[in-house]
Amino acid sequence: MDKLFYLTPSLCLALASWVLSRRYVVFTLLRLPGTLCHELAHFLAGLATFARPTSLSIIPRRAGRGYRLGEVQLANARWYNSAPTALAPILLLLIPWWVATLRARGAWHFTPLDAGLAFLVAPQFLACWPSATDWKLAMRSWPLAFIAGAGWYAWAKYPWLRSWPWPAA
Q1: pLDDT in tens, 56-86
Q2: Are 17 and 31 in contact (CB under 8 A)?
Q3: CA terminus-to-terminus distance, the chain
Q4: Which of 56, 79, 58 is nearest to 69 (CA)?
Q5: Residue in 38, 11, 48 with CA at minimum distance from that of residue 92
Q6: How far apart are CA 89 and CA 101, in angstroms?
Q7: How far apart, in whole angstroms, are the C-alpha atoms of residue 34 and residue 40?
Q8: pTM for the model
Q9: Would you list the domain boundaries of the chain?
Q10: Who's near 93: CB < 8 A, 6+ residues apart?
């Protein structure tokens, strides 16, 4: 509960930034730390899954009625690496949780450091959700969902699969 209480100012700041960035461009700048982490998550996951990221940009660009805050281009997005690369920003939720775990230990109170951390943690709440383009890219990995579903079904249906080493037939 302390962690959630600690993260409340960051959540409120994230909500305010999200609402106000639609009306005032200057609030888009408050989202840049989150955008950097979001795009780095794609980039690092792309390296780890051999999707071969070729470029990373966090320069906001006009796109239709809004702004595209950043992008990573991949040279080798395939069925086996698209979902892990596209959905990697979901792991950004670990950053606020980690900060809250470190700062809310024992008897604590808010300090100026916590106010500064709120401005760095708040954008992570906005940046953790994959964009529509990310979801489209993740859909290329539908065979992985099929394989995972079949594995889960087999694990649930056949209890002997849960024991290791497997018994001899």
Answers
A1: 988 878 777 777 788 899 999 898 999 999 9
A2: yes
A3: 49
A4: 58
A5: 38
A6: 20
A7: 10
A8: 0.78
A9: 2-144
A10: 124, 125, 128
